[in-house]
């Protein structure tokens, strides 16, 4: 089994990466100030963590790890036990019970799930989730309740990423960084990653 951790950093202190289990291959994407003592991939600061995640999938589509952990530059705001969780994931030979049948593991990362409607209420009212889903060719019911973890941090297995072809992710990224969704797109994706996978 192979394990990748994909980190979307802005200007957070990233020294915690020194404590990541060596079985995880680290992809550190930096959208902020330069980092002196760590290797990283420099990226333009757009699309928040969502753009980083999607770009990684596109660029590595043919060579994704068996398990992929996507997280922010300081995952502890939403997941105080983040380092323990990713270490435990491998220690248990990834036999975690995934939180849903789609192969997404996130529950203990954030400790809680939130739920919203297709307009983002009650946390982020006014999100155009239905319209966004239509643009990426996903059928979302108007009465659907969305269960999500704050912070958009999760582990996903490769086979669930590959349910969509590369063109799906290219289209998703183009829509995300379009002027129409440049502000709200990352908040929409935070709520629909489970739905996508």
CATH C-level class? Alpha Beta
Classify the beta-strand content into a percent band: 15-25%
Query: CA-to-CA gap between the ends?
Result: 20 Å
Structural class, by secondary structure, is alpha/beta
Q: How many DSSP helices?
A: 7
Backbone shape: globular
Tell me the radius of gyration. Answer: 16 Å
CATH architecture: Alpha-Beta Complex
Under CATH, the topology can be stated as: Spore Coat Polysaccharide Biosynthesis Protein SpsA, Chain A
Strand arrangement in the largest pleated sheet: 3-2-1-4-8-5
- Order of SSEs, N→C? EEEHEHEHEHEEHHH
> What percent of the residues sit in helical stretches (DSSP H or I)?
25-40%
Mean pLDDT: 88
Number of domains: 1
Low-confidence stretches are 95-103
Largest β-sheet summary? 6 strands, mixed
Number of strands: 8
